Amino acid sequence: MKPPDDCRGCGVCAGLCPHDAICMQLSHEGYYRATIDEDKCTECGLCEKICPSRNSLKLSTKEDSLGQFNHAYVGHSKDSSIRNSSASGGCVTSALCSLLDNGEVGGCIVVHESEKSSLRFEPCIATTKKEVIAASGSKYYPVEFSGVLREAVSTGKKYALVGLPCVCQAIANGKSVSSEVRRTFPYVYSLVCGKCKTTHFTEGIAYAATGSHDVDRIRYRTKGNYPLSNYRYLFEKGTKQTKLPFTTSPIAKLWGNKTLTLPGCHTCNDTFGIGADAAFMDAWASPYSFSTKGYNFVLTKGKREELEHSCELKAIDLKEVLQSQDGVLRQKLMNSDRREKVGTTSEQYKTINTAFNEHTSSVFSPATAKRFARFIVSQLRLLIQK
């Protein structure tokens, strides 16, 4: 199989390949792509059945985007410390802790700060509540799951997995063809996603905030005496901390820059992660978005005991959730049209995001990848000055 041009970089195909024929490589454009070792590949076809890009969803309306989700809630964690340390209401973290407490899973696959110097974040298997809580919060950074999936499957234990919709759909596809995948991942939680950003988004905002890429730590969502609708990014270098609000700083411009979005996101139409067991998102609706403490909207396909035990939840109409994500849903439906009209061959795909290809061809080389972040910031500063 040739990896699709709009590969999402999730790594599920590599993690579940029975012949270890696929590996994920971080490109100098700042996102992961699958590569295939033809000497190892037996053309069994499992990767094609798993791939969320190869098996795109047929969604025509906003209501279609809900899939089988038929219950909606608004709420937050019962544990105030979990809620305070989370990006919004803390419901995901609380549900995972509940599963660990009750012995339902042997671990939780989450994304935490990487110990590798070359990466900022990566997936891990958290086996204690302390590890789960430490991994809470948003990370707008590309990650791939191949390593942790291989490890999880090899143990024979059960796990809860938290991922973006593409990851959840790939796991759901894997469950449809593999009893081993079904047994290993009985709990799959989706984080609602409008788009994923390249590594250069993070380096760019660090440069915009501090004048340097060399920061010790980045937190994409922090809480304080301000509404979460204008959350702060936190940059740490030694003892110095710099905070920037999302909506009134260069971060918002960089967030909207399509050259810093993964190419696969431009043909993805899954907002909620309809292959997952539950979906979690910020409650972007009044009065919740004006809260300084944070709330979640949650979608489920039925009763979820781990949520009822750990979270304060109130049932709401599904339409309220759809309305809160209206802008994202409209864009995702456009992505459906784009995929149908453009296709995914190499030459056709260039028309999806001409700007991306122009930048990568004229700016990037493996040795100078970080220059791209400086380039974007310099262009942004010119724009602001105008």
In a few lines, what is going on in this structure?
This protein is α+β, with helices and mostly antiparallel strands and 386 residues long. It is 37% helix and 19% strand. It has helices spanning 12-16, 46-50, 80-85, 91-101, 129-134, 146-155, 165-177, 179-184, 199-210, 250-256, 305-310, 318-324, 326-342, 346-349, 354-363, 370-385; strands at 22-26, 32-36, 71-77, 107-113, 121-126, 159-163, 187-191, 217-222, 232-237, 240-245, 278-282, 296-300, 311-316.
Strand arrangement, major sheet = 5-4-6-7-11-12-3-13
Strand proportion, as a percent range, falls in: 15-25%
Give the SSE string.
HEEHEHHEEHHEHHEHEEEHEEHEHHHHH
N→C terminal distance: 48 Å
Query: Main beta sheet: strand number and arrangement?
Result: 8 strands, mixed
Low-confidence stretches: 342-369, 379-386
Q: What does the average pLDDT come to? A: 87
Instruction: Characterize the quaternary organization of these chains.
Output: single chain
The residue fraction in helices comes out at 25-40%
